[in-house]
Amino acid sequence: MAGRLQNKVALITGAGSGIGLESSILFAREGANVLLVDINIEAAEKGAALITQRYPNVKALATKADVGKEADIKAAVDKAVNEFGRLDVMFNNAGIMHPADDNALNTEEHIWDLTMQINLKGVWWGCKYAILAMRENPTDESKGLHTGGSIINTASFVAIVGAATPQLAYTASKGGVLAMTRELAMVHAREGIRLNSLCPGPLKTPLLMDFLNTAEKRDRRMIHLPMGRFGEAVELAKAALFLASDDSSYMTGTDFNVDGGLTSAYVTPIGEPTLPPPVSLTIE
Ligand SMILES: NC(=O)c1ccc[n+]([C@@H]2O[C@H](COP(=O)([O-])OP(=O)(O)OC[C@H]3O[C@@H](n4cnc5c(N)ncnc54)[C@H](O)[C@@H]3O)[C@@H](O)[C@H]2O)c1
Predict the structure, then answer these.
(1) What pTM did the predictor assign?
(2) Domain 9-264 listed as CATH 3.60.110.10
(3) Is the CB of 18 under 6 A from ligand 1?
(4) What is the dihedral of CA 117, 123, 124, 125, to 10 degrees?
(5) Ligand 1 center–CA 52 separation, angstroms
(6) Based on CB atoms within 10 Å of each CB, which residue in 83, 175, 178, 213 is the most buried?
(7) Distance 214 CA to ligand 1 centre (A)
(8) Is 47 in the pocket of ligand 1 (CB under 6 A)?
(9) Per-residue pLDDT for the chain (284 aa), expressed as one digit of tens each?
């Protein structure tokens, strides 16, 4: 049976870890050639090697890029097109949560600027070069390939609900991602380019777990999680696959919440979760 991304080409940023790594593996399993982009090239190369070894029918390459630099993003998009011939899916997923990001009084300007540079400007540039590439995609109906494509921008639940444990620059940057994605979705809606925001809840990835490094910090959040657990990166990858594929062909401009019910919650249940979380795709 054909995969849900058969013959397509995907570029994923932040592909060395967490959501980006799980998505790279899943997209390849579904038939896509994948360019894994990360500032940590060793991690991206490891992911590409795993894919190449596990799924010989698709190609996976790694490239180093800092999404906070426009030239790096342009070069990464050019590489995807030169190596694979097109770009169907752009997953602008890389982001940072700086340990010195705090409230309005304590956040220093350079932390604000760095966060915006990577989390918001990086997504803008990713959209810009993806749109230019997707307009040039050749059509081949026999392979299910068409012009345009799907752009997925990773935002966050903190762009929707406020937290009294502030990371002001991070939250503002993710709010910017939501607004920008919505607007671009309208601009490009008639040329076959869809843009949606993926809004993860709190996940068990290094980005958050490095920060929630005490049981007290983790428990402070856990009380607000209806399912009684943090999310897994693979659960976001599965949602990203839906947005990437033609299964979501009538979706654009959405804030797609994958948050275990967090943004719908007032009073959460007590007790342990009944079901275990899904296992990472890095483990076969
Ligand atoms: N983990 C969470 O709880 C959570 C919640 C909501 C949103 N998010 C968002 O999800 C996205 C992915 O996060 P994750 O949890 O998978 O994190 P992660 O730390 O597991 O992975 C992030 C990856 O991005 C890479 N990266 C960092 N800065 C980069 C840069 N300038 N250029 C290129 N690559 C860079 C890192 O090297 C790393 O491989 C981020 O945008 C994050 O803000 C995460």
Answers:
(1) 0.98
(2) no
(3) yes
(4) 90
(5) 23
(6) 178
(7) 20
(8) no
(9) 789 999 999 999 999 999 999 999 999 999 999 999 999 999 999 999 999 999 999 999 999 999 999 999 999 999 999 999 999 999 999 999 999 999 999 999 999 999 999 999 999 999 999 999 999 999 999 999 999 999 999 999 999 999 999 999 999 999 999 999 999 999 999 999 999 999 999 999 888 888 888 999 888 999 999 999 999 999 999 999 999 999 999 999 999 999 999 999 999 999 999 999 999 999 97
